[in-house]
Amino acid sequence: MAAIKYRLIKKDSRTNARLGILETP
Predict the structure, then answer these.
(1) Distance separating alpha carbons of residues 6 and 16, to the nearest angstrom
(2) Per-residue pLDDT for the chain (25 aa), expressed as one digit of tens each?
């Protein structure tokens, strides 16, 4: 499931910051 999250973060870095998901591999 991490891949999906990472994909979403890459697609929308703004959403990532909004959700507070700052996961750097």
Answers:
(1) 9
(2) 567 666 666 666 676 666 666 665 5
Q: Is 21 helix (H, G, I), strand (E, B) or coil?
A: coil
- Going from N- to C-terminal start, the domains of the chain cover 1-25
Q: 20: alpha, beta or left, given left = phi > 0 and alpha = psi -120 to 50?
A: left
Q: What's the pTM value of the predicted model, to 2 decimals?
A: 0.22
Helices (H), the chain: 2-11, 13-19
Phi, psi values for residue 17, rounded to 5°: -65, -35
